[in-house]
Every structure is written in C-alpha cells, then in structure tokens.
Amino acid sequence: MAEPEREQRPLLEVEQSVTSIPEDHEATCWGCGLRLVFAGYSPIYKCGWCGAITQSNQTTRKPDSVWFSHWRRVRDRFFVTVLILFMLFVICGGVWAVYPIVFKISNFCGIFHCMVTAVLAVFTITSYCLASSKSAGAPTNVRWGSYPLVGKRDLENYTFCTYCNKPKPPRAHHCRSCKMCVVDMDHHCPFIGNCVGASNHQVFVIFLISVVISCSYAAGMTIYASYQIWPSVDFPNLASSRDSMSFWKIWLEIITTVAGSAFFLSARGLVLVYLAFASLSVNAGIGVLLCQQLSYIYEGNTYLNHLSSPNALHGERGLHNIIRFFGCPYPISRVLLRYSNAGKLQDNSGSKLL
C-alpha cells in the first residue's frame, strides 16, 4: 500500500500547482491570430511569436467626415498656390527690378546675375515639384492575421492602424490629410500639399536648402539695387542739433527721414523694397526650419517621433546620419566620418581626464 501512495503524491503536487487563469487575461494577437494568455492584465502587449504590438482597448475609428477632408484639401491647395505665386513673383519681379541696375555695372555682371538667377530658380522649382509630387513612403504589404502565413518575428514591433485597418511598421504614422500611413513620417506640410516621409524627406530638405540660398541671393541683390536707386536723403536736424540729441532720437530721426523718402521711389524701387523684406523674412523662417530638420537627422529621429517620445533614443547620434541621409559619395563620406570620429575620440579623452 505504501508504493501506490508514493506514486500518487507527484500527481497531487501537479494538481495543486495549476491555477485557473481569468478570461480577462486572454487576448488574440491581430498579427498572427494566436491566443495569448497573461498572468496579469496589461493594456498593451506584444506577441511572442510574430512580435506584433496590440492595444487591448483599441477600436476601429470612423473615417473622417466629408467636410473635414474637403477643408484639408482646400487648405493644402491654397498654401500650394500661394507658395507657387510667391516663387514666381520673386523670380520674375527680381529679374525685372534688378537687371537694369546690374547691367549698368557691366555686361559681365548682368549676364552672371541672369545665369545665377536661372540656376537657382530651376533648382528650387525642381526640388519643390519632386517634394510635392513624390510619394512620402507607403508601407509595404505584409502578411498578417493568420498563424500559418505569419512567420516568427515577421511583424516585429508592428502596430495596427485603426484608420487603414492594416499593419503599421515602426516609426510610421497615419496622416489624415493624405489618408494613408507614411513610413518615417516627419510631418504633413501644407505648402507642398504632401507628407514628408522616408521617400521624399531628402528632396524636401534639399528644397529648404535651395530656398535659403535663393532668398539670401535675392535679398543681397535687392538691397544693393535699392541702395543704388534710393533718393538722396538729407538730415538737417542732425546737422544742426546733433550734440544735444539723445541716441534714440538720432535713430528715430534717421528712420523717419529714410521712410519718408520711400514715397519718392518709383514702381521698380517699391518692388525692390518689398522683395528685400520678403526675402529676409522667408529666409529667417525657412532657416529655422532647416536647422530643426538637420538637428533631427543628426539625432536619427523625426519630428513626430520626437513629439511622441522626446526622451527616447531612436538611434545613434552622429554625422554619419546626415551622410547616409544625403547619400554622399564614398570619398566625401570617408573624410567626414574620419573628422567625426576624431572629434569623438577627443571628447572621450577629455571626459576621461575630467
């Protein structure tokens, strides 16, 4: 009788170690369809087979209303039209207002100015058309929903888009204006009427660089041309009572006198003044945006990822991110990477000494 009792003890221990799992802790993976069992409740879980991430409280969202989609479409078309008209006005107005003054210097200066203007205009318009017409980067179609079709780690860190009802890869976001998910989406730019993503991000940054260079050249030429045709200005009050006037009164007298002389400018002069202020303003705004874009590229990040997780590390920071982004030739990239590695070694040696 003792031996049967000994054989039954392990069975009793196994029966006592089995615990019932509540149904609330069971879920189905959207990626492979497998049933997942958890020891505790979690609003977000990851499948151990396919690697897909699922939110338990995620529901399918309703499509945007017709008025909302129409408003966004009209907004994008309005900004695109304004930008195209502004670029054409700067190019045509700048050539019309500047070329007589430049040709007065010499024919070589006039021809050189026309050639530089043509190159910058073609480069800027071409990069703009590519950034606005090129697809921002749609995700590739992957198999999902059934265990036999989905292999191990096929959907690693994928999430489910409730707008498209499709898998969404990592670093991808859904754009409600374009009505699609965009890989490595940076933002939706209404001035190009398109999203900035993995496929057109490089062209978009090149467009920003061309705008900064073009506006800098336009501002310099229009300021020089305005100075050449500006009416003569006299400061009688400064000549008589300059010693008794304060610093601010002197500046106020200069500004009011120069502004008053602007009423005697011709139509060509007024166009030059407007182009100078417009070029400087656009150059300042686009310059800030360009610096922001380059800083995110240096960090290996995008604008939307920075907003969603500002403290998270999305990759190694360094100059190699910018080199890979622009696709620099091998000799140039080798020199830049050597310079970057030398700087890192100096920083590390300095930190060790401290």
From TrEMBL:
InterPro entries listed in its UniProt record: Palmitoyltrfase_DHHC, PFA4/ZDH16/20/ERF2-like
Keyword ATP-binding assigned: no
Subcellular location: Membrane
Catalyzed reaction equations: L-cysteinyl-[protein] + hexadecanoyl-CoA = S-hexadecanoyl-L-cysteinyl-[protein] + CoA
Gene Ontology molecular function, alphabetical: protein-cysteine S-palmitoyltransferase activity
Gene Ontology cellular component annotations, sorted alphabetically: endoplasmic reticulum; Golgi apparatus; membrane
EC numbers for this chain: 2.3.1.225
Name by which UniProt lists this protein: S-acyltransferase
Residue spans crossing the bilayer: 78-99, 105-131, 203-227, 247-265, 272-290
Species: Zea mays
Keywords for this protein: Acyltransferase, Membrane, Transferase, Transmembrane, Transmembrane helix
Palmitoyltransferase DHHC domain sequence ranges: 157-306
Bilayer topology annotation: Multi-pass membrane protein
Family: Belongs to the DHHC palmitoyltransferase family.
The organism's place on the tree of life at top rank: Eukaryota
